[in-house]
Amino acid sequence: MKARINPPVYLASAPIACWRCGAEMPAVAIIAPDVPEAEGEICTLSDIRSLPGPMRTFIQKRFPTFRLKYSKTTQSEYYASTCPNCGVLSGDFYLHGEPGAPFFPTTEEEAARLTVEEIPVAGPMDVEAGLGMGAAHLILKNAKRKAAEPSVGGDSGK
Ligand SMILES: [Zn+2]
Questions:
Q1: pLDDT tens, 119-130?
Q2: pLDDT of residue 147
Q3: Cβ atoms of residues 68 and 79 within 8 Å
Q4: How far is the CA of 6 from the centre of ligand 1 (A)?
Q5: Ligand 1 centroid – CA 117 distance (Å)
């Protein structure tokens, strides 16, 4: 579905083992606390069909393996977490769909395995994605935080 998301927007990730070759790969998701259509629920985006350019660029700079890929399971193209070694995708259903999945933590301990980082976006953005609700508050509360990058031209350079 098409949805408009307001800042802040977070990039969530966790290292997982590729189901096919066993290599370590990053599982990646986007968390959006302010989605007007979700009426106050914090959303985890999955099955992402389209992403605004600046967001895509930011995410792919961190995780080049998060890319548009055709899924035989869903018979559609979406931004999927793929393996850097063998290229296979780990489906969003596997990553989001069931309690205990990387992006569907049910305990603080499970949520603490994730890292979140704010994606610097200036204003509302349009995405085409599925909106998952119910687990993201646990992620935002317990995941490791990666500090936001200093903005370009800031005073942090020494
Ligand atoms: Zn693999």
A1: 999 899 999 999
A2: 77
A3: yes
A4: 34
A5: 25
Question: How many whole angstroms separate alpha carbon 111 and alpha carbon 143?
Answer: 6
Q: Ligand 1 centroid to 19 CA: how many Å?
A: 7
Q: Give the distance (Å) from ligand 1 centre to CA of residue 21.
A: 4
Q: Are 80 and 70 in contact (CB under 8 A)?
A: no
Say how far apart CA 23 and CA 84 lie, in whole Å: 8
Taking residues 77-87, what's their average pLDDT? 97
pLDDT digits (tens, 9 = 90+) for 135-151: 999 999 999 998 766 55
